[in-house]
């Protein structure tokens, strides 16, 4: 069982609308890049290039409904993680994007109110286990879905692969 609470601190880098699909997050023309760190260079390249420039390590991306819809490409979550995003908050996520994010160690936080209570530059504290978001800048607290303890374990390990490596270390 993970230690509780697990609280993330960071700044909102961008607030996006609904139906932000994987082509917007990571353009399909770069799918041949196999170095995960290089995927960050093309994050939001076509639609929101300023996000890539402005995103600082630990920053949050906030969106409305259906973030990560479209294809099942893992590179969309990978680009966010390797660009340094601390978490993505959205009213809802496409299911495959959500799983990809958690498996890669990128917190995906479901919070229907985040879109209307956050602006770029706001400082946030996200309680992943308690299910709340505190917008420190405006002193507003609003709900978020608490992450399943298994998802928290994956995030604390740095993703599915590091989790499995630790769990099975020394097992032949």
Structure report:
With 172 residues, this protein is α/β, with parallel strands linked by helices. The chain has a domain at 10-122: Aconitase, domain 4 (Alpha-Beta Barrel). Helices cover 31% and strands 19% of the residues. It has helices at 22-25, 36-39, 49-54, 75-83, 95-104, 114-117, 149-157, 160-167; strands at residues 7-15, 60-63, 87-90, 108-110, 123-127, 132-135, 140-143. It has a seven-stranded mixed beta sheet with strand order 4-3-2-1-5-6-7. Helix 5 (95-104) links the parallel strand 3 and strand 4. Helix 7 (149-157) packs across helix 8. The radius of gyration is 15 Å and the shape is globular. The two termini are 25 Å apart. The mean pLDDT is 94.
Q: Give the H and E element order.
A: EHHHEHEHEHEEEHH
For the secondary structure, the number of strands is 7
First and last CA, distance? 25 Å
Top CATH class of the domain at 10-122: Alpha Beta
Discrete helix count: 8
Largest sheet: 7 strands, mixed
Structural class: alpha/beta
CATH superfamily caption of the domain at 10-122 = Aconitase, domain 4
Helix content: 25-40%
Task: Tell me the quaternary state.
Answer: single chain
| Gyration radius, rounded | 15 Å
**CATH architectural designation of the domain at 10-122:** Alpha-Beta Barrel
Task: Show unreliable segments.
Answer: none
Q: Tell me the CATH topology of the domain at 10-122.
A: Aconitase, domain 4
Strand order of the largest sheet: 4-3-2-1-5-6-7
Fraction of residues in β-strands: 15-25%
Mean pLDDT rating: 94
Outline: globular
